[in-house]
């Protein structure tokens, strides 16, 4: 690999409005501050994060390029072109670490095929933080993204994940569009067996953080929390 090539840095962002200093190490923040080329999931969000980071370069002078929803191989090569010319690039997702439950993985894959070094920087992952705090099985786990929206399909998916969890002793993680959080929690409590353990991790690392693990029977015995439109990770172990 040519030493003249730049690197692709996977730049973490804070979750919600948490300050960078609360969740991102100083060394990672220092690297992000020296980068001038960025590929981002959302340009507006990335500019806000870089402003909170106190990036020394005026935002209008930074090369910030959005990652297309369905990037072609040509588009990915174009986004990585600065690295081929010797400039380092930062990849940023909307929140947390890039390329985990995030489309940025496509750019990382392309970087490997182009012999561009990929450097992950330490930062917050709501999925791992939720798993850490859940008390559920951290040795066997799987992330499933979003479950179906329609009631019958969602119920079927929940019961299938619960059965797989019980068979494999595997923690199942998934998320929901925030405005449907409450419906997801209600569906989980209605669909799962009383003994299944369910963790709700809302607003991880933010002022709205609330994490609780209970059996489904215990969830049913008391009023359910109001999750609102705050990003939430759901975890279950059958």
Bin the strand percentage: 15-25%
Task: State the order of secondary-structure elements, H for helix, E for strand.
Answer: EHHEHEHHEHEHEHEHEEHE
Structural class label: alpha/beta
Number of strands: 10
Describe this structure in words.
- This protein has 238 residues and is of the alpha/beta class.
- The protein has 2 domains: 8-120, Tetrapyrrole methylase, N-terminal domain (Cobalt-precorrin-4 Transmethylase, domain 1, 3-Layer(aba) Sandwich), CATH 3.40.1010; 126-237, Methyltransferase, Cobalt-precorrin-4 Transmethylase, Domain 2, CATH 3.30.950.
- It has 10 helices and 10 strands.
- The chain has helices at residues 20-23, 26-34, 43-52, 73-79, 81-84, 105-113, 126-134, 151-168, 181-191, 216-220; strands spanning 8-10, 37-40, 63-66, 89-92, 118-120, 141-146, 171-175, 197-202, 210-215, 232-237.
- The strands form 2 sheets. A 5-stranded parallel sheet has the order 3-2-4-1-5, sandwiched between helices.
- Strand 6, helix 8 and strand 7 form a beta-alpha-beta unit.
- The longest helix is centred in the last third of the chain and has 18 residues, at 151-168.
- The radius of gyration is 20 Å and the shape is elongated.
- The relative contact order is 0.16.
- The model has no long low-confidence stretch (mean pLDDT 93).
Describe the structure using short key phrases.
10 strands; Methyltransferase, Cobalt-precorrin-4 Transmethylase, Domain 2; elongated; five-stranded mixed β-sheet; 238 residues; alpha/beta; Cobalt-precorrin-4 Transmethylase, domain 1; five-stranded parallel β-sheet; 20% strand; 36% helix
